[in-house]
Write a structure and sequence with these properties.
The protein is mainly alpha-helical. The chain has 2 domains: about 130 residues, no CATH class; about 220 residues, MetI-like (MetI-like fold), CATH 1.10.3720.10. The protein has 17 helices and 3 strands. The protein has a 3-stranded antiparallel beta sheet. It is elongated, with a radius of gyration of 32 Å.
């Protein structure tokens, strides 16, 4: 004991060689740690840049669409305005397309020529006229998308120098296409149809409108279920629940549920919501309920941490001036914790937006050509739409798959940025 006291009372020579070596070793360890962290950040940013660059290179062409601008005078065509559906739009549109290239054509050449344009050209013209019947009174201009092979040809995805038997377009079709280009009717405007059209079997017409609507309804249902239930459960567990084995077991299970693979929640939704409750398959209601099961543990954990971070002096001050316990919680603690809770909720919803496996299991990957009008109608979602397009054999869906991923990443970045801004704007530091 005396030796220890003497050793502690012995003055330390901070300038000795041994202390200098120790100091240099500590500083070197600090520099190595900083270098390791910097290298890790550079690698992470490099992989992120590589991912974004790869998706952009593969998908930017889907944001433009090759179209042919056709002038059509319907005032000279006999059409029953009381029933536009009965008009022979196929014959009318093909007649306008045929006028773009003068000269005689055989039936075989005409079939090759008409295949340059999308097979839904007649429906595009019909729908536009039904939306605006005044177009029947005189000449009107219509943008007709080219079919996928010629959209790929215009974007240099098809090598016209290859032998004819090794490409999807014939020499005759390339000749017709070049004549249309020389006539000045072929252009490549922004492909607003990628956002305004529903899904289609034809890549030149496929869009994300139905998937965007389905994701919106599913996230709305997820928010309306998980947000109030998550806050209520967090308040009870943090403020009212007794500390015993039962509550300890509940807390452990909540933490475990936050780490359960998403496919498990999909199987649960398939068995319970579709099997037992008989809810409609592919409905955003079911998708939102499944996503709420995934998001609920995260919101509970974040809400409890937010409530716990509020200083106890605020609760004690409220109780000291006569407030009841629930008044102290709902009038003081919860409003101060709400910015952190909202941040966690947005991040949880962003995670739910990108989930694919549970939505596949409940059938939200069906081919649906209309956007849902509510939570009970069948629809797809952004992740499942990406899965559908990635599984399609047509070459045009390759670029659209990457473009849809970029759209999904854009929504995720926006939601995470909103969470960061919300936290910086309203967060209180104690």
């Amino acid at each position: 004991m005396v030796d220890v006291v003497q050793e502690l009372s012995t003055p330390v020579d901070w300038q000795s060689d041994s202390m200098q070596r120790r100091r240099k070793a500590r500083y070197a360890a600090d520099r190595r740690l900083q270098i390791y962290g910097l290298v890790a950040i550079i690698f992470a940013l490099g992989f992120l840049f590589f991912l974004i660059a790869t998706l952009t290179i593969a998908g930017y062409k889907a944001f433009i669409q090759t179209t042919a601008t056709v002038r059509l005078d319907l005032s000279a065509v006999e059409i029953d305005r009381s029933d536009l559906m009965k008009a022979n739009w196929r014959r009318i549109v093909r007649g306008a397309l045929r006028e773009q290239i003068p000269g005689e054509m055989s039936r075989k050449e005409e079939r090759a020529y008409y295949s340059i344009f999308t097979s839904s050209a007649a429906y595009i013209v019909r729908n536009k006229i039904m939306d605006n019947p005044t177009l029947l009174d005189g000449p009107a201009v219509f943008d007709i998308p080219l079919s996928d092979p010629f959209d790929q040809l215009a974007k240099n995805e098809i090598d016209r120098d290859l032998p004819e038997n090794r490409r999807r377009v014939s020499d005759l079709q390339i000749k017709f296409y070049d004549q249309l280009v020389q006539a000045g009717i072929v252009s490549q405007p922004i492909n607003w149809g990628l956002f305004l059209n529903n899904d289609s079997r034809f890549p030149e017409l496929a869009g994300l409108k139905g998937a965007l609507s389905g994701s919106f309804w599913a996230l709305l249902v997820c928010f309306l279920i998980s947000f109030p239930l998550g806050i209520a459960a967090a308040i009870y567990l943090e403020e009212f629940a007794p500390k015993n084995r039962i509550t300890d077991l509940i807390e452990i299970n909540i933490n475990n549920l936050a780490a359960v693979p998403s496919v498990v929640f999909g199987l649960l939704g398939l068995a319970v919501f579709l099997g037992w409750f008989g809810l409609p398959r592919s409905a955003p209601l079911v998708g939102g309920m499944v996503l709420s099961l995934m998001t609920l543990p995260t919101i509970i954990i974040v809400a409890r941490a937010a409530l716990k971070s509020v200083p106890s002096a605020i609760r004690e001050a409220a109780l000291g001036i006569g407030a009841s316990k629930h008044e102290a919680i709902f009038h003081h603690n919860l409003p101060l914790a709400m910015p952190t809770i909202m941040t966690g909720t947005i991040i949880g919803l962003a995670q739910a937006l990108g989930e694919t496996a549970p939505l596949l299991l409940i059938g939200m990957n069906a081919f649906i050509t209309s956007d849902p009008g509510g939570v009970m109608e069948a629809s797809t979602a952004l992740p499942t739409q990406i899965y559908i397009w990635a599984d399609s054999p047509e070459r045009g869906f390759v670029a659209r798959t990457s473009a849809a991923i970029l759209v999904l990443l854009g929504f995720l970045i926006f939601m995470n940025a909103a969470a960061i801004l919300l936290r910086q704007r309203f967060e209180r530091r104690w």
